[in-house]
Structures are given as C-alpha cells and as structure tokens.
Specification:
Three copies of one chain form a homotrimer. Chain A is an alpha+beta fold. In chain A, 25% of the residues lie in helices and 23% in strands. In chain A, helix 5 packs antiparallel against helix 10. Chain A starts with 14 loop residues before the first helix and ends in an 8-residue tail after the last helix.
C-alpha cells in the first residue's frame, strides 16, 4: 500500500503545483487544507477580493450613521454622508495605523482617531492632524474600500479592482422586487465557531447530498433531491402557484464561466418545499409576516446569490443569509443572519425561537459534520474521492476556487 | 564567551545536518527540540511508523465490536469481523474524507459515514455509496492500517511497511505466558498533559538516574541503581525466588542493532524490588490478585518492551503501561494504563486509589521535571551535556532515534 | 487604487530588505510587525542583548540570597556570593538542560538541579555531579550572564559582549546621588498583557503626542508639550526651584549616535510638572516620603534611561519604571514597578492605591490604544505615516532599532 498523504513536504510548492493536482469532480487534495502559505494566498487573492454582505442600508439610515464591517483582520467603516451617499473607508489611521473607529455602530459628524486625534470627514478626507506641519492633507485621507448598495443590501469588497454590479442589477433587480428586500430588518444573528478550514464550510453549504442522512429536521420540510425525478412534479405545482402570485420563477445562473469577466456572480432559482409546507420552519407554517408585496404562499423558496459568498435563502416570510468567515487555516465562523420585514414586531408578528429554529439546528449539526471532515482530510490516509451528482454546486465551487487561484499560481503554497 | 544556541537560523537545515551534530553519549542539540520541520519529519518517518499499544483484544471480544485508536491526528477503527479476525481501518471516508466512526467504542454491523452515508463492511470494503453511479467500489474501501494481536494485546502501526512480529512472538511468548496477559482488563487510565517535546518524556522514562533525587515514593520500594553493586545481591535473591515460582528471569534485549532488520524491537528483563516489597505500591504490599498462573510473589518485576514505544512494567499482581503522545512540538500527553486480571472486581479485589498511587505520584513529579527541562533546552545557553552511566537506556533511545531519522536526512529541519 | 500591504510575501526577504524600506520620520512598514523571522532576529540580535533592569541589589542583600530574572524564555539566577559579589548565571543545567533553580527568589548555599541533583556553587562552578566519572568539572559550571549593579539597581544582559557601564557611571552617578536610589524598595509591581508587538509598546511609551487626547488623568498634572512654547516658562521656574534644593537639572542625552560605541545608552533630563503639582498622583500631592537627600519638592520629575529599555521616571517621592516584555510577535507584557524609599512603611508613609493610581490608569488606557494600533498595522490598507515633531523620541527609537538591526541584515525576514 502507498500512503497518499505525507506529513512532510519534501520540496517547496507553489499554488500552481497544487492547482495541477486538482482533479475536477473529485474533492481537493490534502495540501489545500493544510498549507499556511496557500491560506494566505487564497485570502489575499480570492476570498477578501470577493464581495461580502455587510448589512442593510437601513442600518445607517441617516447622515453620519455608520457601521463597521470586519473580516479576516480587515475593518471597514461604512458610513452615510450628508448627501445620503454610502462610503466605505479602511478603518486604519493614516498617521500610525490605529483603528480610527472602535464602536461597531453609531453616528458621528467626523471620525477622530482615539490615539493622536487625527480627524477625518465622513467622506474619508483628512479634516485635521494636530500639531503637524508640512504634511499633504490630500494624500492622507482614509483609504477607500469598495462598497455597493443593491435592493437595500450593502456589500463590501477589499479588492483594488472589484467586479461590477451593473449586469447583476439589471438581471436581479426585477426578480427581487416582489420580496421588498429594501424594507427588511435584522431579526437575529448567530455565530457558530467551526474548527475547520473555511472551504469545508462552503463545500458543505453547497450540496444537499448530506441533507437526508444528516438533517432530518430540514429534510422533512424541504425536498433534498434537487435534480431528481421526485422534484419535478413538486416544482411544477409550485411554479403554477408562484405564477398565480406573481412570484418570479426564473432561472439565472450567472456564475463562473457563465458570468462575463468583470461582473459579480449572481444566481436566482426557486425551489419547491413539500406541499403542506409554506416556509422554513419546524412545522412548515409561517414564522413572520409576508415579505414585500407578496400576496400569499406558493410553498417555494428562492435561492439567490449576490457574489460568490453571499447566499440569500428567501422564504415568503423571511430571509436567511449565511456568512463564511475564515479565522486561520483551521478555524472558521459560520454566521447566520435572519431578516424579516422592517415593520414586523418581535413577540407580536414573529417569535425568535420559531424563526431561527430550523437553520440553527441544521447549522449545529453541520458544525459537527464539518469538524469531523476537517479531521479526516488532514489524515495521511486521506485522498480525494469522487463527488456525487448531487454535489454539483460543491464541484462548481471547487472549479471556481481553483480557477480564480490561478492568478496566484506563482505564490508559494 | 560564545553562546551555544541562537534564536535565529541563518540557513535552512536538513535533518541530515542535525544528525551530524549529534554526539553519542550527550544530550541532543537544541534544534531537535525546536524545529517544526523536524517534528513533522520525526512524526512521519519514525513515531507514527512504530507500533503502538492500542488496547486489549478482550475489549472487542465479539463480532462487530470496535474501538478507535487515535494518535497524532490519525484515527484507526479496530474491529473484529464475523470470523473473529481483527482488522484496523483508517477512519477516513473515501468520499470526501470525513471521519466514518465517531464513537470511541461500540458494536456495529457496518460503518456508515455520518456525512453522506457511505457504508463500509466490517472488513473495510465499500458496501454502498448512495446515489452514485460509475464509481469503482473495489478501489473505495477504507484503507487498511497495520494491526497485530499478541498475548491479548493489540498494537497498531501507521507504517506502510511495518516491522514483523514473528521473531518477537517466538522470543517473548514463552516468557510472558505465566503472566496471563490475555486475561487482563483495563482497571484505570490517566492522562497527564506535559508542556514539553515528546522526546523529553521518553528520555525521562528511560533512565532512573533521576529516581533518587526526584522520586522518593518510588525509591523507597524500587532499587534505583540498576547496574550498581548494590543491585547484585538483591537480584541474586530475587532470581532464586522467581525460579522457585517458575517465573522467567531471562534477559532479552532485541533492540536497535541487536534487532534483525524488519523485526519489531522487544526486551524482557526482571529486576528486584526491595526485600520486603512485593509490588509497586505505597507500602510494598499487594494491590490486586496475582496475575495468570503465578503462585506467589518473588519481590521482582518484569520490564518488557513490545516495540520501541510500549513499555509494560509487569508486577506480579498488575501491569502498568505508558503511552507517549506528541501533541505538537512543545506539548505532549503522558498516558498511563493500569491492567489487572479480568476477573478481579474493583472494591473487592483491588482498590483503584492503592493500585494507581505509585505511578500517579511519580508521573505528577515527572511532569514538573520535564516541563522545566523543556524550558532549559530552549535557552540560548543550553548545550548538550554528558550522560551518566545510569542513563544508558536514554542514550540508547537517542542513538536509535537518530539512526532511524537517517532515512529522513534529506528533509528540511 | 494600489493596495500598500499584501497578505502574501511572494519572495523570501532578508532583514536587509526590510531596512531598505524604512523611511526615517515615518512609522514602520508592515512587515516589521508580522514577520516571525524578523521577530526572532530582533530578539536575538537586539532586544535580548540590551541591558534590562532586573531588580534592586537590596533584594539580595546577604550571601546566598538570589532572585531569578526571566525574559523571553531566558532565565538568569542573580545571586550574591560569600564575598558579597553579585553574579548572574544561566539557569540551565549543564547536564541535560533543566532549569536549576525553580523558586523566583530565596537563599541557598548551593544550587542543586531538581532533575539529577547536579550541584553548583554560588559562583556558578560545578560542585558535584552524582555518579559521573570522567567529566571535566571546570568546563561544566553554569554559564555566566552579564550583570551590573549601579546605584543599587541591578541590570542583566544576555549579550555575549554587552556594552560597558563605565561612562554611564561617570555621567549619571553624580546626577542620581540626591535621589538615593540605593535605598529603595519595591512597593508594587503590576503586569498588563497587551495583544500587540513589543515595538508598538515602546513607540507608545516614547511620545506624548497622544497624552492630551488619550490620557486626561496624566495631562491634568503633567504638561504634555515637551518642546513647546508653553513648557518654557514652566521649566524655567522649575529649574530655579530645583537649584534651590540642589536637585540636578542637567541634560544628558547619550543615546544612539551620541553614545560612544561600546557604551550603554543613558539619558537624564528634568521636566516641570504643573505649578501646583509636586508629584505624579491623582491630585498632584505627595504619595510617599521624599527620596534620598531631597529637602523638598521642585514640581519637577527626572526622566532617566539606563540602557535603551529601562526608563526611570523619578519623582521626588517615588520612582516608576517600565519593563517591555515581548511574548511572541503579537503579544507583550507591560510591567510597571513602583519604588519608594526603603524605610517607608505601607499604610503609614504611603498608600498603594494612591501611589500606583496615575500610571495604572494611564497604562490601562494605553493597553487599549496599542491593541487597536496592532490591528491597524496588520491591515492591507496600512502604510507608514508621517511622525509629528512631538514623536521625536519614537522616531529616535525607530532609527536606533533599525540601525542596530543592520547587524542582522543577512538574516531572513
């Protein structure tokens, strides 16, 4: 027998070497989960340069309102200026690098660094640097971070040259209009630390091959055979109900090779729940008021991606969104945000326990699964295995991940 | 003055460079305790490829009974099949690498991976992969891990080509027969985390030069001058008593250069306790029923090694075995397992506190000693010092360790 | 926009490469705070080779009295021998490297290693090695560590060739005589863990540009504009009062390029407090009996450095000294020691709470500031910024740090 893995790396490898080892349709080779150099490269060249959902525009409704967006050691101040425009600034003082803004959210006329009191305007420009002569104010404003608002959702990218929202706005705007995403509020946020590499979280999220064995709570309300024969009649009936309610059932799949260069990835699809199930809940019954302009339930849910890392699962009465947060090569945080319409009142219109139950119990189960996956992929006996047809979206993630890492091929891994 | 150590390594080193620095009869140079690359190499090329005591065959007595054996990130499922044969399988699913078996012990007809429900037979072959077409079942069984049973003791090696038990069985079988090792049970297990490199634990275990200053509890029942003049009359009297009881007093020392290539190391020797002491206990009095076929006490104890890392200290009424468990370059776990005859009843035939007292108090003291040793060997003032004659077995460990690491000479250190 | 920082390092860098990136008058480039190799180099080539304040000679007043001095993994036994001489020995046994002395302070006739009982005389020479033949006792004494006493203060350096105290003694002895530093005792010690690179602590300590915005408690008793026009009249009045009391107001600045090669850096300057403030306290009123031979208060305080890392802030009634203790690249400990005259009695002559209040509250605030600075300098948006005139001593630290690291230019960074 030949051991597939080895705990020692006899020669320095590059990201390009690793990419050559990837076999499409199979899980990733071991080094993808244990190379610290690769981890740094993928953060720098891929993860942090993608768009990330940062919050709701309604969270910073008035001039001077701000919220921080922290990810993998980076921090952005997202702030609305006096003209109502949203900016994002790197939360790094141009003097000696201190965080300028310490509170996670608030309202300010200007931002004053707590260290030496350098002060910045809402648009990021330097307002004053105490007792300093001969410095060039124009070159010492807070550095800009890319930010976009779409349907009331705010996204941030730490790329110097991020992808454009233009085509996505045209494609997705009409499809999302009925759901009134610009009139949402955050009902709940939960964080689940997972002792695993971030890619294992994304691989897990993107397939439902594991739903039947691992998630009985989910499987009793959601059909888990996305492409199977058993889905067809369910989906056919759902489409009829949706059309009667003017709910879009288009299929948009503008990701990877289907996405024009320079445009942000985006998808829209609508899937049926079981017949007697109208939303993602314990008993299939509603958990919050209908979203936006919806007139009723079609026993369906929309799967939406805005950018590669931002899935929005849009039920008729609430939205669930996932955040994948790397915290070192072998630790991550899975965050879930539950959104409901902004005029819903907790206790009257929705119950937090009922609202969050399904995805909480599902994520707790996934935490264990993913951590056991992490242990296995680091074994010297691990070797990549074949993916099932139901793991199509996981395969696509791996394809896209490896294809985008090609830009880092010369970096050490 | 010239500093011997330096906190920076100006040039990349190989394991071979380190080996050239080793001076037999002296303690190891500093880099052996602080090179992360060396640590990975020694795990891969030496530690994990040696045989390790994993448990008793009686712990998996019936078909389908299994127990996990975890070591340094590897996990093996040790299971008895329907024909009574013992197998060990890598606990790594061939699909996407999850741990297949999560419970430390139990009984099963088959093993089903908790992630996507791939299912394996007790012999490791793939029984089913849900909803998968076109895969080669014959190539997707759990990978085999080397396993051996000897005298009811089960050993595992993560080597692709482990050493053979054949000669050891011939040499040691007759010597161990009187002790009835195949009729033992685990009376107690304790783990002692030690903030030190694993080699310092092994170095400590292998010499009794420190017993007189550091272990008064041990020294009052066990003579600590193994080769000294004071031992000779004690051992001579013990041999006479042992022979009268048909207890072997042979000397087997088949280790390192004395061990044929491809064979597992093994030793047997019998040492006298003090005259009025019959076993390793607080007061020298028995702590459990006599083992196997023994008819009495000879005030002796057998030192046995099966493989380099598995010492069995066989008193007439119980067995103590040590496990050395690396947990990163600067952390380890010292585990102790106490074994008594399988029909002994706790509370009636033995008292756990009395049984475990001696080696517990000794190991607690060693924990402190070893941790202070770790601090010192990392100092820039540390340089290898001369070993005493009483440190012969520690020297032999260092010789054998360096000789086996020669196979990794080209790896970075 | 071009990102200044990058989370990946495409090519191996040397310390020399980093030094080329340093721009005097600006904060340090990012790699200075995140290169593990640089951290090891700076510990080895700079930090540990400087002199460090280790305690008071009065703490080891009698023959055999000893105290340990631990820093960055090194440990020195500072001990007074029978002739009254102070020695420092590496706390590393010459046998197998154990710490020899475990208690932080005590009194001993000899030092016996707890592992194998090798025993050393107070002067470090080997007294006995149990059961060992054929070893060279003369070559197996504890290794010497550089130690100096000055004005009752004890300093240690882990350099093989430390700088000399000769000129410093001549320059500083007369200036410090009135303060009776040889008749002090330790009134309090506190440690503040700071999640930041050690250099950020030193940078923070060396400038008062941040005092007005960040330290209102300090700023209401201490003028914070060291070089400004507002200081001149205050200092002029203080000098008159000091001269009337025979308190030195000399200015000594023998640091870096002003310091002869081979001599320890040292500074002396005296600064005015506000008129109605006589010491560093909550209300500006005395907190302990007058030091040494002082006859009264001049509303001034002396800033003294003995070696680069040992600031002594000498008020008329107490001394505050800071220790900067690296604990890995991104963790440090800020220790503060408060000294009062040795015949002062707690509760009668001074109250610990009042004595320690000012620098405790200031250091707690600095801990937060420095940790937020650490977060920022690791951002991909960080780039060095211009230092203010008031940051002159921070700039000097950076200049001196980079100049001394030049000796390590060929090491990897």
């Amino acid at each position: 027998m030949t051991l597939s893995g080895s705990l020692t790396s006899p020669a320095p490898r590059t990201v390009g070497n690793l990419l050559a080892d990837y076999r499409p349709g199979w899980s990733l080779p071991q080094d993808y989960y244990r190379s610290e150099a690769l981890y740094r490269a993928e953060m720098d060249q891929f993860f942090l340069t993608e768009w990330h959902f940062a919050g709701l525009a309604s969270e910073i409704a008035k001039a001077g309102d701000y919220m921080l967006f922290d990810l993998c050691g980076e921090s952005a101040i997202i702030v609305r200026d006096a003209e109502g425009r949203i900016h994002a600034h790197a939360n790094v003082c141009r003097h000696r690098g201190s965080r300028v803004c310490l509170e996670p959210r608030g309202s300010a006329r200007r931002f004053t660094c707590p260290y030496h009191a350098w002060t910045y305007n809402l648009d990021g420009s330097l307002f004053s640097a105490r007792l300093m002569d001969g410095i060039d104010h124009d070159k010492l404003g807070l550095k800009p971070v890319a930010v976009e608002e779409f349907c009331g959702l705010v996204f941030v990218s730490f790329a110097a040259d991020p992808t454009s929202f233009d085509q996505m706005r045209r494609d997705m705007g009409p499809l999302l209009r009925p759901f009134g995403l610009d009139r949402l509020k955050v009902a709940a946020r939960k964080s689940y630390p997972v002792a695993a590499n971030w890619k294992l979280l994304v691989e897990n999220y993107n397939e439902c091959y594991h739903c039947a064995p691992a998630h009985p709570e989910f499987a009793r309300t959601h059909p888990t055979h996305m492409d199977g024969d058993r889905m067809k009649p369910l989906n056919k009936a759902m489409v009829e109900r949706a059309q009667a309610l003017n709910i879009p059932t288009d299929y948009v799949d503008t990701v990877g090779e289907h996405c024009p260069p320079g445009s942000v990835d985006h998808t829209f699809s609508r899937h049926s729940l079981y017949d007697d199930v109208v939303t993602g809940s314990d008993d299939g019954k509603p958990v919050a008021p209908l979203l936006g302009n919806l007139a009723g339930y079609d026993s369906g849910a929309a799967d939406v991606y805005i950018g590669f890392f931002n899935p929005f699962l849009i039920y008729n009465d609430h939205v669930v969104t996932y955040r994948f947060i790397p915290d070192g090569i072998d630790r991550s945080v899975q965050e879930i945000i539950w959104l409901v319409r902004d005029d819903a009142v907790e206790g009257r219109d929705y119950d937090l326990q009922r609202l969050t139950w399904l995805w909480d119990v599902t994520t707790v189960a996934d935490k264990t699964i993913i951590e056991k996956n992490q242990l296995g992929v680091l074994s010297r006996y691990y070797e990549p295995g074949p993916l099932a047809g139901m793991e199509f979206y996981t395969r696509r993630f791996l394809d896209l991940y490896t294809s985008r890492m090609a830009r880092a091929a010369d970096l050490p891994a």
